[in-house]
Inverse folding.
């Protein structure tokens, strides 16, 4: 797989056919979609996965104007980099956007601004600051201190924390996925954690989303309130949803076979591959 760079964003572009865009969340990278990629390619889709600004192999923000008043990233430049990248791709059709967590916020924002998509598949999506769990709220209250702590936390400690969290709904997360999450966590710009400070509550606008949407989440999510996802599904007119029991914040990694199958079924329905 050969990576490319555009607008300071690292991305992969594989296959031919109808386009599917893959967007990770905070502290993730495009590698989180490694388990879905092969299935999409085999099904005949062009798949494009991106490292968002400040993540993976993409650049970190340098312009002070990219920061919010708390000293962390502002959501708008993160979205603008994503939008510029998306606009440059010369897609053959409006894409299906598959997005996790904060990536879901970007996807929702994109369609709410009038840009076309064939469908949204949102995994544990963030759409309002009200979703944030108490530990997450605490970490973003002091973004500078949290950034220093993150930078100085040994990689092995990060792996241990991820491993321990499996006891709370992530028991099926593979060792390989654990290691990749730890790698991604150590290489993202820690100032990103303050992103929620600059986000708005999208709830009042959700009824304007008039396209097929699927929402997948776990009932043991410790990052975002599990009760927020059914409310999201009810707010979007053409949304369907899947709640996975005993599952945490990363269903696409912890329950990958189930999520992959539902993702393929949804994509085939809303953006079929033309028959030869």
């Amino acid at each position: 797989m050969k990576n490319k760079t555009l607008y300071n964003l690292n991305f992969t572009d594989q296959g031919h056919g109808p386009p599917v865009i893959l967007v990770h969340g905070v502290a993730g990278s495009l590698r989180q979609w490694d388990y879905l990629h092969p299935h999409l390619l085999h099904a005949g889709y062009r798949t494009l996965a991106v490292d968002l600004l400040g993540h993976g192999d993409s650049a970190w923000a340098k312009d002070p104007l990219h920061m919010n008043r708390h000293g962390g990233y502002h959501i708008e430049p993160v979205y603008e980099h994503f939008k510029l990248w998306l606009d440059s791709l010369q897609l053959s059709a409006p894409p299906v956007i598959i997005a996790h967590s904060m990536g879901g916020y970007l996807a929702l924002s994109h369609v709410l601004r009038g840009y076309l998509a064939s469908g949204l598949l949102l995994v544990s999506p963030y759409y309002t600051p009200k979703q944030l769990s108490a530990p997450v709220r605490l970490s973003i209250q002091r973004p500078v201190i949290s950034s220093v702590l993150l930078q100085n936390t040994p990689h092995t400690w990060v792996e241990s924390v991820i491993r321990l969290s499996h006891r709370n709904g992530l028991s099926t997360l593979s060792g390989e996925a654990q290691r990749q999450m730890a790698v991604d966590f150590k290489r993202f710009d820690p100032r990103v954690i303050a992103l929620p400070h600059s986000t708005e509550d999208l709830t009042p606008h959700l009824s304007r989303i008039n396209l097929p949407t699927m929402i997948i989440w776990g009932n043991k999510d410790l990052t975002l309130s599990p009760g927020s996802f059914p409310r999201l599904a009810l707010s979007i007119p053409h949304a369907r949803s899947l709640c996975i029991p005993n599952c945490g914040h990363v269903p696409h990694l912890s329950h990958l076979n189930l999520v992959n199958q539902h993702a393929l079924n949804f994509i085939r329905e809303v953006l079929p591959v033309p028959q030869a």
